[in-house]
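Hi V.,

You were right to ask for the full record rather than a summary. Here it is.
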Amino acid sequence: MGELASRGQLRMSLVRVALVLVPLVLLLGIISGVASGSSGGEWFAALAKPAAMPPGWAFSLAWTLLYILIGFALSIIVAARRAPGRTLAIGLFVAQFVCNLAWSPVFFRAHQPAIAFALILLMIVLTIACLLAFARVRRTAALLMLPYLAWLCFAAYLNHEIDVLNPSASALAPSHASTQIRL
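Predicted structure:
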């Protein structure tokens, strides 16, 4: 009963955790994007965009890979039972991930690039804190978060530029047609 787990048992514990958390993180990210209309739409098409804006397919590919990476990073931390700092690291991950899931609805659904920019800046700060907390628990988990942090910084740049190029972006939202006949 007092024996330590073998390397094989620890590895299988990580695999079991990853089999749940990686698809969960990916699914939540996809749901947030799809539900908020992040694939574009009339409003987004009407916005002036920075020259560095990648094609639409690049965002789908990048976010899929990033959600998989951060899902693995979280799995490593969750599987590190009894590791000092684990609870704080998980809490910081959840906080930044909630911001991540909120960004698409704020930007694409609510048409609020300025608020979305403030949100992505908060997300970056929380991700840095999360990455540092992950590094104290498992260095590999922190390394898996680096591409995500880099992409967030690039996304913040794009968000800021869209906000600057479109000072009245919320006014570009298409009006909903009425079926009412006025006499």
